[in-house]
Design brief:
The structure holds 2 protein chains of 2 kinds. By secondary structure, chain A is of the alpha/beta class. Chain A is built from 5 helices and 11 strands. Helices cover 22% and strands 25% of the residues of chain A. Chain B has one domain (2-78): Mth169, Chain: A (2-Layer Sandwich), CATH 3.30.1280.10. The chains are: A alpha/beta, B alpha+beta.
Chain lengths: 232, 79
């Protein structure tokens, strides 16, 4: 597959990652070059952005994402993310981002205690981040959601700040599948570069295997953003 | 030889679905009057040699607990 404008996007594989291959495929499908990164290697191979994929890194021991946060690759990613490198954390990747304190709040056990796996309707509420610029504000999408610890929690002050600054990336519609405060399914940092999303856009890029193709714009957005000059 | 005990608990304002499920079970099994159950974790760490208490607190607050949602207490028992 040809790469568009040379966007190199890394996908980190941790022990226990599950969705790294789908994430890499979604990047290639959108026209980018997917670069395999390894958790134990601090070298990011010169990538322009990073996707932290879903799964159960380090068996979800201790807390989801708590051990992955200290992996050598994450030390470099945390440093570069603070300097502006785009990072998208999906599901377990979102958990790693909150454990890294690159995003506020925490993700805890679903309020109903059960693992949830469903096609989830969402509303996109931020179209200025580098990961969502190809959406229109208010777009409703349906993509897979699968998590056991997806309940987004934060203190009231933080929640109010996220709302006031337009940093809620996506919100659950119809049902709140995991008890997330204010139906928050995803959020982004103040710079619009580091984003976390509990549902899985990488599983919704082709109608053959997904409930929709609604996940594609996340990946075309980052490639367009990189082409427009967002470089770390 | 020293034994370090780190207890980690969810902050009071954080929902504890596991504690709530246990509370339900306690009631079903005949324990009356249970008004709350909060579930936590305990780490028992045995250390040879000099105990670096500052380092222990750093790791208890960064790795063993997540300060966004949890509190910890740490005590050192000399054997």
């Amino acid at each position: 597959m040809t790469t568009l404008l040379g966007a190199r996007i890394g996908v980190v594989t941790f022990p226990g990652s599950l969705d790294d291959r789908d994430a890499a495929r979604a990047i290639r499908f959108a026209g980018g070059e997917a670069v395999e990164l390894w958790h134990a290697d601090a070298d990011l191979k010169g990538v322009d952005a990073v996707v932290l994929p879903g799964g159960f890194s380090y068996g979800d021991y201790l807390r989801c994402g708590a051990i992955a946060r200290f992996a050598p690759a994450m030390q470099t990613i945390i440093d570069r993310a603070r300097q502006g490198m785009p990072v998208l954390g999906i599901c377990n990747g979102f958990q790693i981002l909150v454990e890294s304190h690159l995003l506020p709040g925490a993700l805890i056990r679903n309020d109903h205690q059960h693992f949830v796996c469903r096609d989830q309707r969402l509303r996109i509420e931020n179209t200025t981040s580098v990961w969502t610029r190809d959406f229109d504000f208010g777009d409703e999408i349906v993509i897979p959601l699968k998590n056991g610890e997806g309940g987004y929690v934060a203190d009231e002050h933080t929640l109010d700040m996220l709302e006031a600054e337009g940093r809620v990336l996506a919100r659950y519609l119809e049902v709140n599948p995991n008890g997330s405060y204010r139906d928050i399914a995803g959020l982004v940092n103040a710079q619009g570069t580091v984003a976390g999303l509990m549902p899985h856009p990488e599983h919704a890029i082709e109608s053959l295997t997904g409930p929709s193709t609604d996940g594609r714009p996340f990946f075309t957005s980052i490639i367009a953003s990189l082409a427009a000059g967002v470089r770390a | 030889m020293a034994r370090v005990i780190v207890d980690v608990s969810l902050k009071p304002e954080i929902l504890d679905p596991q504690g709530r499920a246990v509370q339900g079970a306690l009631g079903r099994l005949g324990l009356a009057g249970v008004t709350s159950v909060r579930q936590g974790k305990q780490f028992v760490i045995d250390i040879d040699g000099v105990v670096d208490e500052a380092k222990l607190h750093e790791l208890a607050g960064n790795l063993l607990s997540n300060p966004v949602i949890e509190n910890y207490t740490l005590r050192i028992e000399q054997a």
